[in-house]
Amino acid sequence: MKTTLRALSVLISTFCIVSPAFGNQPLASGTVVLDKSLEAKAKGIRTLFLVIYNPESKMPMPYGAKKVALKSDAKGKFHNFQLDMGSISLMPAAKMGGKLQTMRIKARLDKDGSAGRDQPGDIYGEVSKVAVGAKNVTITLNKMK
Predict the structure, then answer these.
(1) Predicted confidence (pLDDT) at residue 8 exceeds the cutoff of 90
(2) Secondary-structure breakdown of the chain: helix, strand, coil percentages, each rounded to the nearest 5
(3) Alpha-carbon gap, residue 33 to 25, rounded angstroms
(4) Which of the ends of the chain has fewer CB neighbours closer than 10 A, N or C?
(5) What residue stretch is flagged as signal peptide (predicted)?
(6) CA distances from 130 to 47, 61, 68, 76, 134 (A)
(7) What DSSP element (H or E) covers 67?
(8) Taking residues 76-105, what's their average pLDDT?
């Protein structure tokens, strides 16, 4: 009986991570800004990734990510974002990394449009120590791979 209850508990906790019932749980919202010095290099890049990391996790993998198709070139304040459990793709680290309390959010204009590590030509920036539920977060893209 104890084994069955433990297995059920694990199943429920695993299910809750991806459950649509938790889809509205706000993680963070704000704006992505492109540093003026990189505007020319960003021309034609139409894919933005917002990647969440759990600083408490021993796993170096992302907690989750969201891919955004941009309709025009990035310039100045170019994207308002809202991240919640229903809008991000959860990674295996989300299940193993414990409860998310603070996060690091990285935004990347991705030259080839493919998920994965930063590649030459990608433009990125990040913010750390973001509390779950934070509003008005500004991520400035000011680095180039």
Answers:
(1) no
(2) 20, 40, 35
(3) 24
(4) N
(5) 1-23
(6) 23, 17, 21, 22, 7
(7) strand 64-69
(8) 88
